[in-house]
Amino acid sequence: MAFDKTVVTKITTLGVAGITLAVAIWGFFEEITLNNIMICINLIIISMVLLPSEFQVAWIKDGFGLIDNLFGRGIYIFFIGSWVFGLHSRYSGAGISTYAFIVGIIDLCVGVLYVIFYFAFGDSAQPK
C-alpha cells in the first residue's frame, strides 16, 4: 500500500483545528473579561476556517487563497500556533496553561512540517 499524503494532511489539519478549538472554548471558562472573550472568539473563527479548507469548499478557495496549498496552510497554522503559544502565559490555571503550551508547540511544528511537505512533494500532497 502506497503512502497517501492527502490522508495524512487531512487528518493532521482536522486534528490541529480540533485541539485549537478546545483551547479557545476552554479559555471562555478561564476568566470572564472582554479581552479574553474577544481572543477566544477570534481564535475560534480562525480555527474554523481550517475545517472547510480540507474539504475543498469553493468559498474558502475564493476568499482564503492563502490556505489553498500546503505552503499557505503551513504559514496559517504556524500563525495560529504562535498565537496559542503566546496565550499560555496569560492563563492562571495550570491545566489550561499547560494545554495551551502543548497545543502551541504542536501547531508550530505542524506549520513548519507543512511548509517542508510543500517543498518536498509540491501540489501532489493536496487533494483535488
Report on the architecture of this protein:
The protein has 128 residues and is an all-alpha fold. It has one domain (5-125). The chain is built from six helices and no strands. The chain has helices spanning 5-30, 34-48, 50-53, 58-63, 70-87, 94-121. α1 (5-30) packs antiparallel against α2. The chain starts with a helix and ends in a 7-residue tail after the last helix.
Summarize the structure.
Keywords: Membrane, Transmembrane, Transmembrane helix. The protein is mainly alpha-helical and 128 residues long.
Number of strands: 0
Helix and strand sequence: HHHHHH
Low-confidence stretches: none
Structural class: mainly alpha
Number of helices: 6
Strand content: under 5%
Biggest β-sheet description: none
Indicate the mean pLDDT.
Answer: 82
Features:
128 residues; mainly alpha
What's the topology here?
Blueprint: H1 5-30, H2 34-48, H3 50-53, H4 58-63, H5 70-87, H6 94-121
Transmembrane segments: 7-28, 34-51, 63-86, 98-121
Subcellular location: Membrane
Membrane topology: Multi-pass membrane protein
